[in-house]
Design a protein that fits this description.
InterPro entries: PyrdxlP-dep_de-COase, PyrdxlP-dep_Trfase, PyrdxlP-dep_Trfase_major, PyrdxlP-dep_Trfase_small. By secondary structure, the protein is of the alpha/beta class. It has helices at residues 31-39, 46-64, 74-78, 93-104, 128-138, 150-167, 171-177, 192-207, 217-220, 222-229, 245-252, 273-285, 308-318, 407-416, 418-442, 467-472, 477-497, 532-549, 557-573, and strands at residues 186-189, 233-239, 260-263, 288-296, 321-325, 350-354, 366-370, 446-448, 456-461, 503-509, 516-524. It folds into three domains: 14-108, no CATH class; 141-416, Type I PLP-dependent aspartate aminotransferase-like (Major domain) (Aspartate Aminotransferase, domain 2); 421-573, Aspartate Aminotransferase, domain 1 (Alpha-Beta Complex).
Length: 574
């Protein structure tokens, strides 16, 4: 089906009918019973075989399309997904395949395409779909050995490998802790947000642990713990570029979003150390517990890295838990050429890394690593039926009650791609980012906002009428507003165009004399399939899209703004 065709509702199926009663009044064998027997049989029955073969055909058709996304808006698509009744009887396999083929796959975003360079999602190694089929067949629940057994040992080994990558402790340390049932070098979770939450949960409990007179926060609660230790409240401190998961966890662990203190950054996107010291001094004067100091190894917006050695020193001087959010940048450690960017990460107490970002794994695997294995006991929870105190059960320290064995993906990646393979991927991403930055710098239609520290490039389109003012350093506040609106519409329209994709974000920038919110286009150069020609094509597509938005050269900027307001408002409603 061509992606340019309009969507239509799925064909009606057997789900709208009911089984006929037998002559003696008994209900004949239902369709439900038949498909249950088919779908749960040890060998594929007719329906399961039809689905398997049909899904293979659907995927082949999906792969053949070059478009990144369809031109359909969310308003147009949602009309086909409004029915809330559950079918009484099973749909025919052919009917469901038609639904996937016509209503789903044409509108799924092809995040692995070489010209999709807008988010931290990329093409995946071709062995992973086969491994995913194996994992689905095994259906292991990794929180207890009774539903995972050897997969528990694989996860522990994988955590040890990643721990060694980050902290690089002695051989004796890893001999003692990798498979010791009383030790855990970290926790595997489903996303970076949950990894950060787990790290802060651990840090909070560590700061308010039990004593001779106090049973500890886990027993007596957060408010009692604060009162016992004489604190007014508790805070987490990091830069203004902290991931938004920190705002979420402020509520989840009882601090409140207002107590996530965001420190200004310097001109390189790194936390302002002088401002940080002032805030720490104020918190101490006001009896506010500093649960953790958060350093960032690869900000989401720009890929910037904090001064980790300096932050480690500050944390050590003040006795503060030091957490590094390396969800994006952690795998840079594989690269001998670039690993110094993360110097100081080995001094962190806890580190977050996402496998589904620069480890090129499917969505759903992240981890928090603990330099000291004993840290994990601050979030220990056990039960009689699983996560038993003296067992190998990983659920003792996991915020999730059930979890698939996603660590097998990481284990496979570390074995089949290896240090050399991951180093090549990182080196190529950084090289392509610098290449694209040079293309942007040389193009008259764009302004490069920052030199890339890692493999993220931020820039913006400048309309022809405003380029002289840009070069003269005389852009007004109104000019900046026009540029912001144009870049918002450009990015929206590029996505709907379907030939290329760049994301956007908003930064507070003082490049032109005063701090102002600036809408920037954001390229993430991680896809190993992206070539120099692809980057040039992405830039050309953006110029063509911008020209289309501003095609009516006789329009005044007031008229342009009116048009842009209409377009951005329409897209935001979607």
């Amino acid at each position: 089906m061509s992606t340019s065709r309009r969507s239509r509702p799925p064909a009606s199926s057997a789900s709208d009918t009911h089984p006929a009663p037998a002559e003696d009044g008994a209900v004949a064998e239902s369709a439900g019973a038949r498909v249950v027997a088919d779908y749960f049989a040890s060998a594929d029955g007719a329906a399961a075989r039809t689905l398997r073969e049909g899904l293979d055909a659907c995927l082949e058709q999906h792969r053949a399309s070059e478009r990144i996304s369809s031109a359909h808006s969310m308003d147009e698509l949602r009309a086909h997904f409004c029915r809330s009744t559950i079918p009484e009887e099973p749909a025919a396999p052919e009917s469901y395949l038609a639904f996937l083929r016509e209503q789903v796959l044409p509108h799924a975003v092809k995040v692995g395409r070489p010209r999709y360079v807008g988010h931290m999602t990329s093409a995946l190694p071709n062995f992973l779909p086969h491994l995913a089929a194996l994992l689905t067949e095994l259906n292991q629940n990794i929180v207890k050995i009774e539903t995972s057994k050897v997969l528990t040992l694989i996860e522990r080994q994988t955590l040890a490998m990643m721990h060694r990558l980050v902290f690089d402790l002695s051989d004796d340390f890893y001999q003692r802790h990798t498979q010791a049932r009383e030790s855990n070098l970290g926790v595997v979770v489903s996303c970076g947000t949950l990894a950060n939450i787990t790290a802060m949960w651990l840090a909070r409990n560590r700061a308010l642990q039990s004593s001779e007179e106090f049973l500890g926060l886990q027993s007596e609660g957060f408010l009692s713990a604060l009162r016992h230790y004489g604190y007014q409240d508790a805070v987490i401190i990091g830069s203004e570029l902290m991931h938004y998961s920190m705002d979420k966890l402020g509520s989840l662990i009882g601090l409140g979003a207002e107590n996530i203190i965001k420190v200004a950054t310097d001109g390189h996107g790194s936390i302002d150390l002088a401002a940080l010291q002032d805030i720490i001094a104020t918190c101490k004067d006001e009896r506010r517990l500093i649960v953790a100091l958060v350093g960032i190894a690869g900000t989401t917006e720009t890929g910037a890295v904090d001064n980790l050695p300096a932050l480690a020193q500050v944390a050590e001087e003040h006795g503060i838990h030091f957490h590094v959010d390396a969800a994006w940048g952690g795998p840079i450690l594989f690269s001998e050429r670039h690993r110094d960017i993360l110097r100081g990460i080995e001094r962190a107490d806890t580190v977050t890394i996402c496998g589904h970002k620069q480890l090129y794994l499917p969505q759903g695997i992240s981890m928090v690593l603990c330099r000291d294995p004993s840290l994990i006991y601050h979030i220990k929870a056990t039960a009689r039926y699983q996560a038993r105190a003296e067992s190998y059960d990983l659920g003792k320290h996991s915020p999730e009650g059930s979890r698939p064995a996603m660590s097998l993906f990481l284990h496979a990646g570390l074995q089949l791609i290896g240090r050399a393979g991951y180093a090549h991927l990182i080196d190529e991403g950084v090289r392509k980012a610098r290449l694209m930055a040079e293309m942007i710098r040389e193009h008259e239609a764009f302004e490069l906002l920052e030199e890339p520290q890692t493999n993220i490039v931020v820039y913006r389109y400048i309309p022809e009428e405003l380029r002289p003012k840009l070069h003269a350093g005389s852009l007004s506040r109104e000019d900046q507003y026009v540029i912001n609106c144009i870049n918002e519409v450009l990015q929206d329209q590029e996505f709907l165009g379907g030939d290329s994709f760049i994301s956007r974000t908003s930064l507070v920038h003082s490049r032109h004399g005063r701090p102002e919110p600036v809408v920037v286009l954001r390229a993430v150069l991680a896809n190993p399939l992206t070539t120099e020609d692809d980057l040039r094509a992405v830039i050309a597509d953006q110029v063509n899209t911008a020209d289309s938005v501003l095609r009516q050269r006789t329009m005044s900027f007031a008229q342009v703004l009116s048009l842009l307001y209409q377009q951005t408002s329409s897209f935001d409603r979607q």
